Amino acid sequence: MAPPTPPVTVEARPYPYSFDPATTALVIIDMQRDFLEPGGFGETLGNDVSLLAPTIPVVGAVLAAAREQGMTVIHTREGHRPDLTDLPPAKKARGNPTLAIGDEGPRGRILVRGEEGHDIIDDLAPIEGEAVLDKPGKGAFYATDLGAILRNAGIKSLLVCGVTTEVCVHTTVREANDRGFECLVIEDGCGSYFPEFHAMALRMISAQGGIFGWTATSAELLPGLSTPGSVAAESAPSTTLA
Ligand code: C5J
Question: Of 86, 109, 216, 233, which has the fewest beta carbons less than 10 angstroms from its beta carbon?
């Protein structure tokens, strides 16, 4: 029997976060062309998609480290069935976009499964053995088998990154928190079209002693992830309100 993996401890907010890579999954939220590249859903809503570009190398580095550790990796994609039967009329109508969900755009039908725009960007393409989870909503647990996948793999903790911080990342972290998972959100591995929402969304996670979980930068996380068993400088748990 393999010896138990020692926990990794990283500096984080509101206090250091410990996790065992063997029981931790990296969950990458919606790094799709529709959100990150011109001509997709994000842009049709009037957003500047270039604001999300800095997340790409960060998520790439965390993904590489997680793969090296043999961690469970989950990719999610927000989108709908081609017949749009899983698209609530309220979601289709909202946002006053130049192109609505299901309309033909430069990268295929907007936010529709199977279309070029719906897929994950090339830089972060999933590899064999990594689950790709299609979700019709903002949260990755809603109407998906994510809970079953994590439970069956013995996962207790999540490292979460992706876009956008205050929408799909936040909704997923809230859902995960209510299901008993410990979540660390990778600050620079998340992005928003609204920098102020990004900053506040991160603060909301770690506020009140970590009401939804922890946040850390990739610089804080990666050294521990590259050498499991390493322990970042330990400091006493803080109960300071953010
Ligand atoms: C949005 C998402 N922002 N992936 N989706 O509509 O955050």
Answer: 233
Separation of alpha carbons 79 and 47, rounded Å: 18
End-to-end CA gap in the chain: 43
Identity of the residue numbered 221:
L
Give the residue among 69, 73, 71, 164 at the shortest CA–CA distance from 124: 73
Closest CA to 17 of 242, 168, 171, 212: 212
Q: Is 80 helix (H, G, I), strand (E, B) or coil?
A: strand
What is the mean pLDDT for each group of 10 consecutive residues in the chain (242 residues)? 74 97 98 96 94 98 97 98 97 85 94 98 98 98 98 98 98 98 98 98 98 98 80 41 34
Which token pair is 23? Answer: 């029981």
CA of 165 to the centre of ligand 1 (A): 8
Could you tell me the pTM of the whole model? 0.93
